[in-house]
Write a structure and sequence with these properties.
heterodimer, A: alpha+beta, Rossmann fold, OB fold (Dihydrolipoamide Acetyltransferase, E2P), 2 domains, 6-stranded mixed beta sheet, about 35% strand, B: mainly alpha, MetI-like fold, 11 helices, globular
Chain lengths: ~375, ~270
């Protein structure tokens, strides 16, 4: 698979649609452009269509409509074994009757490559599997099997490597280690990685670009930083981290250009939100603020934030997590919001439950979402 | 609890197990023993007279026995081959394809196994006669009947193996540049093969063994079970015990080979 012509070999999905015979539309007119050499994550809850999308790129599912291109090459209806694409399957799908070396050599042998053994030796070294070469998959631990699946795909030097929840079966510690490992390998080999996961932390730590998927459509796409700080929908606001969403009425727009702000009346308090973070046209909206951006201070004591200010909140619950403390606050209008506070030691203890507190946040951290969206969308039950 | 009671309690299950095994294997021991019986001097064929190698040295002495054995083995091999191929294909169709009437077919495959042999045998005879084959009963009709009843067992055995197979393995093979043909021969077939082998062994022993259906549809042809049954009217020749012992040892050998292979695999697993 040569890249001799030097033109870009971006992966482009256009109007991709997949409807199953039972009528379920798993993916709905999806448009996506994944630059060559990038680490891209498709993030979403189970059943959101991310795996179906991946399988269509791999050629294991046929799209109902739309096209898939790598560079100028249309691979929409190409057989899976004719695509410069390889997959690391969710449960690895290692061939149980073949040794590790034979598993790894499977692809190159089918393509009629020469010096397959030497290539296998090299890739087994890269993935630290040399000693396991003559064993069968069932004799390996989960982490080792995962590396075999990776080696088996990487040896083919595909233009696009698809990873379907590749770390889902590993325990937390191993998963963290493999995340770093995968990222390192991706940077080393420079291939396009498309990583499907439901783990937002995994997507954010590894990927350059994350697309959040829900119910067959992409809700939002961007860098992890953009997605987290400026979510466009309630689903993204809740699925990536957590958000406090508070009902507000839009009063009007002030200023222009980068300084433009929107004034919102939130239960009697007027807050300002940067226009770049306003994602609604209607007069009602959800004011969103991340829990760690919420500052509290016992009533009457000075609060260290030149921001939007509320009084009359009561601490109704607190859980101490060591590095931080999570407070539940009952706001004067009867809504409970969450506040994460770093345990810097500044306070010299916790704020006791029942304390009346003042609440504040810097206006530049707030965002405004459309009130027609479900404020509970994307909240994960844990 | 006394020491004795404790000892009995500890070994009771083992002792019972040994007794059950003994119960199961006594007939085989008797057969093996009788294969060395010199019955020529006596009219009483069912008691051990004196030791001899004669039966083993001249196994084909009884008139027609080895011919019947040859017939049984040929029918067994052909029926196994045909039933295994057809049954495997049917199992693939049932597991891999969604089609109208699939669940009905799944049920219909089971039914012949539940049909009493005497019913199947007599209805096959009626069918052959109705088809104008009444005068030509023999090797061919036996073969058709054997393929028929072996088929269900093959389909069920291969189907269970196949439905336990992760379909992602085939997808992975296709993803790794294997075309449909290569995927089948390099991944699917090797993984389903143990099921196909088990089905073939089962088919052969079912075919070799069958008496009722065969007897009804055999015409002038005599299979080994029919020979033994006929001979039993006058007294079974001792050579039948030789054949019986050989068959038992062959089955034992297959089981031992299988077990040794499995335990070697287990050891490999344990040594990781």
């Amino acid at each position: 698979m040569s890249l001799a012509d030097g033109r870009t070999r971006d992966l482009r999905l256009a109007g991709l649609h997949k409807q199953y015979p039972n009528g379920f539309a798993a993916v709905q007119s999806l448009d996506l452009e994944i630059p060559q050499g990038s680490f891209f994550a498709l993030l979403g809850p189970s059943g959101c269509g991310k795996t179906t999308t991946l399988r269509m790129v791999a050629g294991l599912e046929v799209p109902t409509a739309g096209t898939i291109h790598i560079g100028d090459q249309d691979i929409t209806h190409e057989k899976p074994y004719k695509r410069p694409v390889n997959t690391v399957f969710q449960n690895y799908a290692l061939f149980p009757h073949l040794t590790i070396a034979e598993n790894v050599e499977f692809g190159p042998r089918r393509r009629g490559e020469k010096d397959v053994s030497a290539q296998a030796k090299e890739i087994l070294e890269l993935t630290e599997l040399t000693e396991q070469a003559s064993k069968k998959p069932a004799q390996l631990s989960g982490g080792q099997q995962q590396r075999v699946a990776l080696a088996r795909a990487l040896i083919n030097r595909p233009e696009v490597l698809l990873l379907d929840e590749p770390l889902g079966a590993l325990d937390l510690k191993l998963r963290r280690a493999m995340q770093i490992e995968l990222k390192r390998i991706q940077e080393e080999v420079g291939l396009t990685f498309v990583h499907v996961t439901h783990d937002q932390e995994e997507a954010m730590t590894m990927a350059d670009t994350v697309a959040v998927m829900n119910l067959g459509v992409i809700e939002q796409m961007g860098t992890p930083y953009e997605l987290y700080t400026n979510p466009r929908t309630t689903f993204v606001a809740n699925f990536l981290g957590r958000s406090n969403l508070i009902k507000g009425t839009v009063l009007g727009r002030e200023g222009s250009g980068a300084d433009a702000v929107v004034k919102v009346d939130m239960h009697g308090t007027v807050v300002t939100i940067s226009a770049a973070r306003v994602h609604t046209e209607s007069s009602e909206g959800w004011v969103g603020i991340r829990p760690e951006k919420v500052l509290i201070q016992p009533e009457g004591t000075p609060i260290d934030a030149p921001g939007d200010h509320f009084s009359g909140a009561v601490v109704t619950g607190s859980s101490y997590i060591g590095v931080s403390t999570e407070y539940e606050l009952l706001m004067p209008w009867g809504q409970e919001i969450t506040c994460f506070e770093q345990n810097t030691g500044r306070r010299g203890g916790l704020v006791p439950v029942g304390t009346r507190v003042d609440v504040s946040w810097r206006p530049e951290f707030a965002f405004l979402l459309d009130s027609s969206q479900d404020a509970e969308a994307g909240i994960q039950e844990t | 609890m006394t020491r004795l009671g404790h000892w009995i309690g500890k070994h009771l299950v083992l002792a019972l197990g040994a007794l059950v095994l003994l119960y199961m294997y006594i007939p085989n021991f008797i057969v093996a023993l009788m294969s060395f019986n010199d019955a020529s001097a006596s009219r009483n064929l069912y008691s051990f007279q004196s030791f001899t190698w004669d039966n083993w040295l001249n196994p084909c002495e009884p008139l027609g026995m080895c011919e019947s054995l040859r017939v049984s083995i040929s029918i067994g091999l052909i029926a196994t081959l045909v039933a295994t191929v057809l049954g495997t294909l049917a199992a693939f169709a049932l597991v891999r394809h969604r089609f109208e009437g699939r669940s009905t077919m799944n049920l219909l495959v089971f039914l012949p196994m539940a049909t009493p042999e005497i019913v199947m045998g007599s209805s096959l005879l009626a069918l052959f006669v109705a088809a104008g084959m009444g005068g030509r009963l023999g090797f061919g009709t036996i073969l058709i009947a054997h393929i028929l009843f072996c088929l269900s067992f093959v389909v069920v055995t291969v189907r269970s193996r196949l439905s336990g197979l992760d379909s992602n393995l085939e997808k992975a093979a296709m993803d790794l540049y294997a075309n449909e043909w290569q995927t089948f021969w390099r991944v699917t077939f090797p993984l389903v093969f143990p099921g196909i082998l088990a089905a073939a062994l089962l088919s052969f022993s079912l075919s070799f063994d069958d008496f009722i259906i065969t007897n009804l549809n055999s015409g002038q042809t005599v299979t080994f079970p029919m020979f033994v049954w006929g001979a039993a009217q006058r007294g079974v020749p001792m050579q039948v015990n030789v054949i019986g012992t050989v068959m038992f040892l062959a089955a034992l050998a297959i089981v031992i080979i299988g077990e040794v292979g499995a335990s070697r695999r287990r050891k490999l697993l344990a040594s990781r």
